[in-house]
Amino acid sequence: MRISNSLERPKIKLLKTKSEWLFDIIGYSFYLGSLIFLLYNWNELPDKVPAHYNALGEVDRWGSKMELLILPIVAAFMAIFVQILEKFPESHNYPERLNKENAKALYLLSRKMINSIKNICLMIFSLILIESVSIALGWGNELGGWFLPIAILSTLIPIVIGIIKQKKIR
């Protein structure tokens, strides 16, 4: 029997897997580490810090050091929102073939994919913050042209893998 309405979908309690816990530990460690790094170096930061980068990773706008708080705030809101979304996999988008027999496998796959994307985004935001502080303090150059393609690929790879794995679930 196919389930087309999200209100009809079964509510299945799925425990977090070891890989999800590990990825959360890594993602939140990056995030907390970048916050500690920012706070530790706050008083040493000049009035003007990198505020925006172009596609080549070059600083194309400088701003107030208060702007450095935007990345951790956005990352925190994103992490909280996605953490809540992870708790309700029945609300995610699924193919029409979702049924009571395959719901558990599809839910788990979707939740793992969202978990990995959340933690990759936390790591990306953290790396940008650390690099911005480093540039402002004269320790680093710029992100470089490699950063944007790697950031995009690192968020797309879990999606592609998830789609491939989802097609194998019947």
Structural descriptors:
single chain, about 170 residues, mainly alpha, two-stranded antiparallel ribbon, about 5% strand
Question: Describe it for me?
Answer:
There is one protein chain. 57% of the residues lie in helices and 7% in strands. It has 170 residues and is mainly α. The chain has a two-stranded antiparallel sheet with strand order 1-2. Strand 1 and strand 2 form a beta hairpin.
Question: Layout of helices and strands, plus pairs?
Answer:
Blueprint: H1 18-41, E1 48-53, E2 59-64, H2 70-86, H3 103-136, H4 147-168
Antiparallel strand pairs: 1-2
Helix pairs in contact: 1-3, 2-3, 3-4
Quick overview:
Helices cover 57% and strands 7% of the residues.
The largest sheet, given as strand count, sense and whether it forms a barrel, is: 2 strands, antiparallel
Counting DSSP E segments of at least 2 residues, the number of strands comes to 2
Q: What is the chain-wise order of helices and strands?
A: HEEHHH
What structural class should be given to the helix and strand makeup?
Answer: mainly alpha
* Number of helical stretches of at least 4 residues: 4
Helix content: 55-70%
> DSSP strand (E) fraction?
5-15%
Distance between the termini: 12 Å
User: Uncertain runs with pLDDT below 50, 5 residues or more?
Assistant: none
Question: What is the residue-averaged pLDDT?
Answer: 93
- What general outline do the C-alpha atoms trace? elongated
> Over the alpha carbons, how many angstroms does the gyration radius reach?
19 Å
Describe the strand arrangement of the main beta sheet, using strand numbers.
1-2
